[in-house]
Amino acid sequence: MLAVAGACLLGVFSVTGCLNPFAPQIDDGSILTELVTDQSTPEEVLSNFQYAYTFRDSLLYSDVLDSAFVFQYFDPDQGSSGLFVSWTRETDLKTTGQLLRSFDVVALEWLNTIYSLSDTVVTPQGGREAQETLAKSFRLDLSNPDVAFTVSGFAIFTLRQDPHDSKWRIMRWVDQSDL
């Protein structure tokens, strides 16, 4: 009887292999591929943007920005009645990197799409490229042990589809935060 039980156990182990319930399987990275999109639509770009902020992934964030990216916001303290201030991709990557390192929690939530406009534009080289403008409301929660606050408002994004890799990326971001 004991020999039969031993033979059964040997048969089970040979079919299932060595199973250790206390040693989980090695992560093959599939969770990342489920979260990160290939940016085949403007909405997928914003999904990657949200993921990059939430998980403080500056490399993914850099991939959502076009090489000609410009960030704009209105600064009421500039000039006599305020001015629009803008900066390029390089400045934005540095600023965003500092933001992501300064807070333990960076929780971005896209709320409503206020409007969406699609267009095909002629490039300076005579080609055509797809562009889309999206206005989205958002909520951004930032916290670390010393401070916690929420920024809300809406952002206007102009995106274009890269002719080389077909990915959509943000060319222009006009921030309309309620600060």
- Give the number of helices: 5
Overall strand count: 6
Quickly give the structural class: alpha+beta
Instruction: Specify the biggest β-sheet.
Output: 6 strands, mixed
CATH architecture: Roll
Radius of gyration using CA atoms only: 24 Å
Share of helical residues: 25-40%
| Structural domain tally | 1
Average pLDDT reading: 86
CATH topology description:
Nuclear Transport Factor 2, Chain: A
- Contiguous low-pLDDT stretches (5 residues minimum) are none
Distance between the termini: 78 Å
Strand order of the largest sheet: 2-1-6-5-4-3
CATH class: Alpha Beta
What is the molecular shape? globular
Task: State which percent range the strand residues make up.
Answer: 35-45%
* SSE topology string: HHHHEEHEEEE
Task: Based on the model shown, name its key terms.
179 residues, six-stranded mixed β-sheet, 5 helices
Describe the structure.
- With 179 residues, the chain is α+β, with helices and mostly antiparallel strands.
- The protein has a single domain (39-177), classed as Nuclear Transport Factor 2, Chain: A (Roll).
- Helices cover 31% and strands 42% of the residues.
- The chain has five helices and six strands; from the N terminus they run ααααββαββββ.
- It has helices spanning 2-16, 30-35, 42-54, 58-64, 89-102, and strands at residues 65-75, 83-88, 105-122, 128-143, 148-161, 168-177.
- A six-stranded mixed sheet has the order 2-1-6-5-4-3.
- Strand 4 (128-143) and strand 5 form a beta hairpin.
- Helix 3 (42-54) packs antiparallel against helix 4 (58-64).
- The longest helix is centred in the first third of the chain and has 15 residues, at 2-16.
